[in-house]
Amino acid sequence: MKYLVILLAILGISAVQLIVKYRFNAAHGPVPADATLFRYLMKILTDGWLWSAGTLLILAAVLWYFSLSRMPLSVATAFASLVYPTVIFGSFWFLGEAVRYPQVAGCILIVAGIWLVAAYS
């Protein structure tokens, strides 16, 4: 059960990153450095997707704290590393971003490391 909860927290955090990136790419663009900043901020504050991402972030944080109360910090922190491969592959599938072989190799090493931490703790 404790691993399921922390995995849900990781998926939630990863989903937040993907939603925010998608909305900035699709609707908002880069943050302006000129007088249009106020209008830009108002547009962001009325974006329902970004509000949903904020709500999901709060839920993921609650799940994270729940997990921390039930497992050693060293194990939970290792699981937090799953955000990297989740976001990399999520950005490939949902945002069409390129994934290169070194990224895939790094993800494999991260998952192997988490498996070792979880198996021997």
Write the topology of this structure.
Layout: H1 2-28, H2 37-45, H3 48-68, H4 73-80, H5 83-95, H6 101-119
Helix pairs in contact: 1-3, 1-5, 4-6
What features would you describe in this structure?
The protein has 121 residues and is mainly α. The protein has 6 helices and no strands. The longest helix has 27 residues. The mean pLDDT is 91.
Please give a quick description of this structure.
With 121 residues, the chain is mostly helical.
- Estimate what percentage of residues fall within beta strands: under 5%
The end-to-end distance, rounded to whole angstroms, is 16 Å
Number of strands: 0
Q: Which structural class best describes the helix and strand composition?
A: mainly alpha
Q: Rough shape?
A: globular
Gyration radius, to the nearest Å? 17 Å
Task: Give the biggest sheet.
Answer: none
Which parts are unreliable, with pLDDT below 50 for 5 consecutive residues or more? none
Residue share in helix: over 70%
- Overall pLDDT metric: 91
Count every helix, treating DSSP H or I runs of 4 or more residues as helices: 6
List SSEs in N-to-C order: HHHHHH
